[in-house]
Every structure is written in structure tokens, then in C-alpha cells.
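Quick check before the chapter quiz. The format below is the same one you will see on the exam, so make sure you can read both the input and the output lines.
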Amino acid sequence: MRLGLTGAGGFLGWHVRVLAQALGWPDPVTLSRADLADPALVAERLADVDRVLHLAGVNRGDPADVAAGNVELAAALLRGLRRCPSPPKTVVFANSVQAGNGTPYGDSKAAAAATLTGVAEAGTALVDVRLPNLYGEHGRPFYNSVLATFCRLLADGGAPEVRQDRDLDLVHVTDAAARLVDAPPGGSWDAAMPALRIGVRELADLLAGYAAGYRTGDIPPLRDRHEVRLFNTYRSHCFPAHCPIPLTRHADARGELVEVVRAYGGAGQTFCSTSRPGVTRGEHFHLAKVERFAVLRGTAEINLRRVGHDEVLRFPVRGDTPVVVDMPTMWVHNIVNTGSDELLTLFWTNEPFDPSRPDTYPEPVAAPRAPAVVGR
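Here is the expected output.
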């Protein structure tokens, strides 16, 4: 599938690009707002693209700017598509459940959808997807969602303030991305976009419980897919500042004991591996799996890079000063034996490995520019 994408740099746009990478599709053709102002450039870029996702929009600001901005972005895309010699088969509009609700934002989204019906003139189908409240990893606090705001406050040691308690219908952003790209079944996503209905106060209390336990590395109950994804969302706001998490060693005449995982519910799998000097393990990322590394013997370096970014974070770790490093979802990671002796590593994941749904997507950590160094 060859995708074209507006709004590629936003919250939803990044998750669409990560999903496309997990599916093994080519990098999407992206159009910035400046690109949309040039109809000839739009036509050139989108020639022979299979599916265009129009995600660019104006969500905040002066009401007049919001109202005009969403319609103009749709009109700009349409002008370019009309000049396209081989237009895409489908245009998908990331609309909102607020469309037509009488607010500048809602009415402008409805007007933008009406504008995009003009793609039918070129034989292109329009798919209008009305998205609810989206949540997920690396959402922008005080902008994308109340959930992202609560996560950031808690990760920084603060507390969320609930001014008005009401029910929310929350959909994980990867599920929304799967709907927009028409992803095939079989992965950790669900294009049916199952929603979690939860009150604002209940959400704040749930996230506060995550924060209280995760300060020392405790894993909360992860009994269903929404609890896993909510926890992953919170973890994305903790990384890398909260890593690595030190472990307490208990020693007596018999030897030593270290608690690596304290989990309070849900499935899980623990396994160990040895690695010879110079050996690298990993070189992949996950969309949903919670994964923990703990070096018990030897010397290693754990390296991570956010998908679609260049900066590599490096954590030097040693068995004689045990710590845990949890892999954030949608970050490529590996572990390298940097010592001269055999490396012994304990791994824990929140779910038993399922070969039919491995949630493991190969990609090297290596990036073109110099890395940042983090940790001890």
C-alpha cells in the first residue's frame, strides 16, 4: 500500500507512520501545509498513490482561524488532486465525532468533509471516518487529550485536577490508524476501534495508581487491551527520565536475592538468555507489548530509538549494580554485550509469546547522527 499523508507530524500522523512501518509498507508520501499551497506539487507527489489520508487540521486557536483553517486545508488538497494525472483510488478524511455540533471546530470539520466530496469528480472514493477521543503514546499534553495531560502531570510528580467529571469514550490511536489505512487483521490493532468508556475522575484515579506503583517499577493489573494501552501511554511520558529503575539487592551468607518484577494481575512470561561478548539481541520494536530487561551478570548497553526519529538513547548496565529498563512501545531497542564475559539477562513481558501475533517488528537501532547518552 502506497500512502499519501497530510498532517504527518502530528500525534495521529506519527502513529499512522509507525503502523505503516510495522506492516512493511513503503514510507508514506507526506505533504506539509506549505506543500498543500502548491497544487502542482500536490498533484506530482500524489500521482500513483493508492490511498491519501487527510489528517491535517486546526484544532485550537481563534475560532475564526479554526473555522477557516480546516476548510481551506481540505480545499487545498482538492485543488491538487484535481490536477493529478493518476489520482489516488481513495481519500480518507480524519473527521471528528464533533462534526456539525454547532462549534467552530465541529462545523468546520463538517464543511471540510463536504468540500472533499469533490474528489469524486476524478473517480476517487471518499471515506469519511469520524474519530472519537484518541489516546496513546506520546500524546501532546494540554493539547491532544486530557489523558495526555494527566499522564504528564503524574510523570512530573504532580496530580491531575478534575474540574468536571463526565464520561469519555476513548479509542487507542493505533486502532484509529488501522481504520484509516484499512490495515489487514492479525496484528495488535483493531480497526473496529473498540472504545473504553470511563469517567474523567475514574481515569485520573487509575493513572494515579499507575504512577504510584511504577515509581519503584511495579506493574499494575493489565487485564485487558485497554489497561495495557493506558499503561503504555503513561510509560511514554516517563521515558527516559525515569530510567533505569534501580533494584534492591538482599544479601546474606547464602548469597543474594533481587526482585525484578512485581506484577499485580494479568498474564506474563519470564525468560533468560546468555550472550557472548559482542553479541547484540533485539533490533525490533513493539506496538503493544510491555517488555522489561534486567542484566543479572556481565556488562551491557541497552540502546533505544523512537520509531521515525534519529536520536539513540544508551543505557550502560552491569550485573553487579542491577537495574531494570522497560522498553517503551514504538521504540526500537537492542541489548549489546559490551564486556569480556558472558552476559546473563532476564526478560519479562506482559503476555506469553504468540507466534501468530508476535507484535515484534524488525528494525535496527542504528541512526545516522550522534546519539545522546542517558543513564548511569
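If your answer matched, good. The longest strand covers residues 299-306.
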